[in-house]
Design brief:
This protein is α+β, with helices and mostly antiparallel strands. The protein is built from eight helices and eleven strands. 31% of the residues lie in helices and 21% in strands. A hairpin with a 2-residue loop joins strand 7 and strand 8. The longest helix has 15 residues. The chain is globular, with a radius of gyration of 27 Å.
Length: 213
């Protein structure tokens, strides 16, 4: 009868246990691979970009200097968002005298074309710079979930996200006039360097549609 032999694991030699130093060629290849893997990472992980109706790229979530950016997330399919067009026009008129304020209307409709956005802007006399955000990169960066929803940003970050005013108290409940001008107050306080007194009043409107994939 054969006696089974005992398995033995050879202890690693010094040469096997100690990895060899990379050659200059291998090191260069490694660095090149890392560079290729990360190329474009920083811009993509930075402020999201969106194009306006003329093809110009904007980064609305990153104001520079003392600029204040006001973003209104909107949808041509949302009747509440469309009904706010006159209010936005009045706000833009008030902000015309304040060069630090820039208004962006950010369309979240995934299938809206440039031509469709231009027609919508003409139909409702929309003010500001109109951006297309079909993949919701800008919306996600701001935490927006409703149209219309307003966001105010300074170089220090987001100071406000919420309703434009309180004219809509609930879905299907619209007051004749608004009693609080939440967005206008937030912009005024941000311009003054003050803390916004009501930074997150809930927006009433339509849920964002599914983003373009």
């Amino acid at each position: 009868m054969k006696v089974p032999t005992t398995a033995r694991v050879n202890a690693p030699t010094d040469a096997a246990a100690k990895p060899s130093a990379p050659t200059p060629r291998r090191l260069a290849a490694l660095l090149l691979g890392l560079s290729m893997a990360c190329s474009g990472c920083s811009p993509e992980q930075g402020p999201p970009a969106a194009r306006d109706l003329f093809g110009e790229i904007h980064r609305p979530t990153k104001p520079r200097g003392d600029a204040i950016h006001v973003l209104i997330f909107t949808s041509c399919e949302c009747p509440i968002a469309n009904a706010y067009a006159p209010t936005l026009g009045a706000l833009q008129g008030a902000w015309d005298a304040e060069p630090r304020v820039r208004l962006y209307l950010v369309h979240v409709d995934p299938d809206l074309t440039v031509e469709g956005a231009r027609q919508h802007a003409a139909d409702y006399a929309l003010p500001g710079t109109i951006l297309l955000d079909p993949a919701h990169r800008v919306a996600a960066a701001c935490g927006a979930t409703i149209t219309p929803e307003a966001v105010v940003l300074s170089s220090q970050g987001q100071t406000y996200r919420g309703r434009i005013d309180d004219q809509w108290r609930a879905l299907g409940s619209r007051a004749a006039v608004a009693s609080t001008q939440d967005l206008a107050t937030a912009v005024r306080q941000t311009l003054a360097g003050e803390r916004v007194s009501e930074p997150h009043p809930a927006a009433i409107g339509c849920l964002l549609p599914a983003p373009r994939r």
